Amino acid sequence: MAQEISIFDTTLRDGTQGEGISLSAEDKLKIAQKLDALGVHYIEGGNPGSNSKDIEFFERAKQLRLQAKLTAFGSTRRKHSVAEHDTSLLRIVESGVPAATLVGKSWDFHVHTALQTTLEENLAMIYDSFAFLKRNDVEAIFDAEHFFDGYKHNPEYALSVLLKAQEAGADWLVLCDTNGGTLPTEIHEIVSRVREELIVPLGIHTHNDCELAVANTLAAVQAGARQVQGTINGYGERCGNANLCSIIPNLQLKMNYACLSADQLQSLTTTARYISEIANAHMPVGQPYVGNAAFAHKGGIHVSAIMKDSKTYEHVRPELVGNKQRILVSELAGQSNIISKAQELGLDINTNNDKTKKIMEQIKELEHQGYQYEGADASLELLLRDAFGEHKAIFTLESFKMIMEKAAGQMNAEAIVKVNVDGETVYTAAEGNGPVNALDNALRKALVQFYPKINAIHLTDYKVRVIDEKDATAAKVRVLMESTDFESSWSTVGVSSNVIEASWEALVDSFRYALLNMSKVETAHDVPRVRLGLVNH
Question: Which residues form the Pyruvate carboxyltransferase domain (predicted)?
Fold first, then answer.
């Protein structure tokens, strides 16, 4: 039977110390529920007395009925004081949480320099604080800050810190690589030594300053640690914390430890992406296991092989972590990529080999011009369907005109659009807060009378990339748009030396794709009428 590993998530506390990460109380409540559904065992929510946001979070979290143990964070009592009078400790107990993490110094250098007290007083601070928590029936977790640096400098004192917390009744002793500078071999050796001296189970808390946080965590588990602390997507101070999105599947799928149920593990990708959206933090496409490109294949040789057996170029089945295989089509792709993508779309390519070669050449030429289809799945699908005669033009552009005016200190844009919809010419005009927004409003105005469901679509991302910097303001640009209909999302691309024309191409593809898949879009009266908010583009 696989040995169980306790998963301690500190996204809501340590993760928020990362640059650019700021969560409201409402955000933290949403993330806590998502983490609970994932199946983590502890959710560290912050310090219930440090600020009004965390106070609100802990008060409202009482109504969530979490299966995970909501955990408060604090530090050992102040020097030369009494635990029963320590405000931070009192607020932890008053919050009603079942578990609490206290950070304490385990490096003598920090005791003298940061705390400016004696080694003996630091031990007393640790003992008094954990004894106080246990007297109040709180599960007590000791985060031994800078433990590995402390152990390498003064192993006797670092160990005495752990023994003192154990004596006071601490339930977990967590060894922290706070500066993130320890190597996996050192982690394994030190954890192995320390484990022999203690009765209380060990945990591991690592930072990623040497890009080793995940490796260090796995090394600690191999040496006997039974709790792993980390954050979703590796959020955290400086270079971040250990990434639970890599740690959990590595432990479970590679090392045969039990962390989550199989069903819970399958929600890992959606959890990671959900939290990145709430945190408004870009999620790297190449992030292992949960990234959009984690199981993406571009090289023709690779695609040819995985079509025979996915194990040829995938170390695990992506479905195990809730991700999916993606076949990318680009100038590097071979015919296998086109065949695989066409089969995915349900296109009959068995008798269309000439068409396959022709579309391959077309894609290579378009990518030479600056188009990029590996990041524009919807534009690629439209291109393939057009090539295989599976899609008709729902509407065509006859002309558009832009009028820009700056008056009274404000920029105003007006778009005049002439389109043909099923043989009928429609002429509309609309204003917007930028040229692309005006074009969107005008095009939407023309189409909505024929396709009311078009109002369900809105933009989620808009990027402009200069392709040839040396051409300065005359350079070609590539516009990537991501859109959604509240049920699914898709990406489109446009390229031109004129940013408005490139944006128009991506915008038209977005609407064409939505209309192609209109059965997925709810009726206009069932969803809010949201416009593509492209400010000043």
Answer: 5-266
- Class of CATH domain 395-526: alpha beta
DSSP 3-state assignment of 231?
strand
What's the pLDDT at 374? 62
Say what the pLDDT of residue 329 is: 60
Q: Cα–Cα distance between 83 and 519 in angstroms, integer?
A: 63
Structure tokens at 475: 């350079």
Q: Beta 326-327 vs 202-206: how paired, if at all?
A: unpaired
- pLDDT, residue 34, reads 95
Assigned token pair, 213: 């946080």
Distance from C-alpha of 13 to C-alpha of 97, rounded to nearest angstrom: 15
State how far the Cα of 252 lies from the Cα of 248, in Å rounded to an integer.
6
Look at the domain 6-260 and name its fold.
TIM Barrel (3.20.20)
Report the sign of the C-alpha dihedral through residues 490, 493, 499, 500, in that order. Answer: negative
**How many Cα atoms sit within 13 Å of 103 on the Cβ side?**
19
* pLDDT given at position 268: 96
Where in the chain are the domains? 6-260, 296-387, 395-526
CA distances from 345 to 279, 340, 392, 444 (A): 33, 9, 16, 27
Give the whole-angstrom CA distance, residue 342 versus residue 45: 47
Residue numbers in the chain where pLDDT is lower than 70: 299-300, 303-304, 307, 327-353, 355-356, 374-375, 390-392, 469-474, 486-487, 518-537
Look up residue 241 and give its DSSP letter: B
Listed residue (95, 52, 40, 105) closest to 73, CA to CA: 95
Residue 516: the pLDDT is 81
Relative to beta strand 477-484, strand 458-466 is: antiparallel
Q: Do residues 382 and 512 make contact, with C-beta atoms less than 8 angstroms apart?
A: yes
Residue 160 CA: distances (Å) to CA of 108, 109, 252, 434 = 11, 15, 33, 65
- What is the Cα–Cα distance from 466 to 401, expressed in whole angstroms? 24
User: Cβ distance 402 to 413 under 8 Å?
Assistant: yes
pLDDT of 526 reads 40
Residue whose entry in the numeric block shows the structure tokens 């894609």: 363
Q: Contact, 425 vs 416, CB < 8 A?
A: no
Backbone angles phi and psi of 188, in degrees to 5:
-60, -45
In 3D, which of 325, 388, 333, 326 has the Cα closest to residue 363? 333
What pLDDT shows up at residue 467?
A: 75
> Measured between alpha carbons, how far is residue 245 from residues 19, 230, 233, 288, 423 in Å?
19, 9, 6, 8, 52
Burial of 424 (0-12, 13-18, 19+ CB in 10 A): exposed
Q: Determine contact, residues 406/507, Cβ cutoff 8 Å.
A: no
Please tell me the distance from the alpha carbon of residue 448 to that of residue 270, in angstroms, as a whole number: 32
**Percent helix, strand and coil across the chain, each to the nearest 5:** 45, 20, 35
Q: Fill in the DSSP letter of residue 280.
A: T
Q: CA end-to-end span of the chain, whole Å?
A: 58
Other C-beta atoms closer than 10 Å to the C-beta of 247 total: 26
